Amino acid sequence: MTASSLEEARKIGQTLVEEGQIACCNIVPSVESIFKWQGKLNIEREGLMICKTREDLFNVVEKRVKELHSYEVPEIIAIPITQGSKSYLDWVMKETETLE
Questions:
Q1: Nearest-CA neighbor of 10 among 26, 23, 21, 22?
Q2: Residue 48's domain spans which residues?
Q3: Which of 17, 41, 43, 23 is nearest to 31 (CA)?
């Protein structure tokens, strides 16, 4: 997902980790996004967030992000992981198991 600023990305990422909805949030401080919004072309600097969680928590994370985010329509997408280190994926599961 993207955020309007580094501060907003940190706030969202920290909240989701503290609440156990995600195991980790990587923040790329500045990306340039080019998009149309309400018929107008926009070129904006945003923060990019890469959040690691379980597939079954997507709806929980999506709902919480919408509560925390400043955008009317925040970018919230899931990218499937086809392979990963077992120890890392086990850690993600462990860090998010409190929501089961």
A1: 26
A2: 2-99
A3: 43
| Mean pLDDT over the full length of the chain | 96
Question: What are the DSSP calls for 34-77, one per residue?
Answer: EEEETTEEEEEEEEEEEEE--GGGHHHHHHHHHHH-SSSS----
CB atoms within 10 A of CB 45: 13
Q: What span, in angstroms and rounded, lies between the C-alpha atoms of 8 and 68?
A: 9
Domain count, the chain: 1
Instruction: Of 16, 13, 12, 1, give the one whose Cα is nearest residue 99.
Output: 16
The enclosing domain of 40 has a CATH number of 3.30.70.120
pTM tops 0.85, yes or no: yes
For 16-35, write each residue's pLDDT tens digit. Answer: 999 999 999 999 999 999 99
